[in-house]
């Protein structure tokens, strides 16, 4: 009987057994790898969960920081505005106030200068009017004496019969300048009305001078021609003196009312 180990069947059986053993080993190895993969997956999942949790925590922390920063920034900004805005507002208001005060100050100075110029001008006109009355009253007396002589038939062609009228112009430049520069708007209403009234008489005085006639002795007058002419001039000269006296009174009243008249010098001038 032949040896069974050396038969083909035995060799085949051994190969099959080896194959099965290798397959079992492979399955065992595959099972081990699967376990390892599962363990690695679990570790990865745990790591991802930790990472997600860390990310969420960082995100929340960032949001909390941003909110805190926003509130802090708002408080700082508000505090800064409360500190910086009031001085700026006060500075602007102060600048406007100073500018307004300076403009009013300039207007007051201009008004004061205009007032002093007008007072000075009125005093000059007062002195001029008084001088005109003084001279014309003397001329009126001479004219009256001449009329009496002519009425008695005495005609002297070299006689000037009083010298005629005084034609010294009165001043109004200060008043006109104040009117043009609008300085009068800073005067009180009563003061402006009184000034206007005083200058109204001065203007009337100037117009009266322009209407008066002067005595012309270049011609040869007879008694019948000369006497009516002298009487006319007498009436005109007397009217001019009265008009000048009224102007003097008006100017004096204004200067006395506002305390600008020197009683000892100007009233008795």
Strand and helix map with partners:
Blueprint: H1 8-151, H2 173-180, H3 189-211, H4 223-257
Helix pairs in contact: 1-2, 1-4, 3-4
Amino-to-carboxy terminus distance:
188 Å
Coarse structural class: mainly alpha
- Principal-axis shape: rod-shaped
DSSP helix count? 4
Which stretches are low in confidence, meaning pLDDT under 50 for 5 or more residues running? 1-6
Amount of helix? over 70%
The percentage of residues in β strands lies in under 5%
Total E-strand runs: 0
Main beta sheet: none
Taking all residues together, what is the mean pLDDT?
Answer: 77
Tell me the radius of gyration: 62 Å
Spell out the helices and strands N to C: HHHH
Keywords:
269 residues, mainly alpha, 0% strand
Structure characterization notes:
- By secondary structure, this protein is mainly α.
- It has a domain at 113-257.
- It contains 4 helices and no strands.
- The longest helix has 144 residues, at 8-151.
- The radius of gyration is 62 Å and the shape is rod-shaped.
- Residues 1-6 have low confidence and may be disordered.
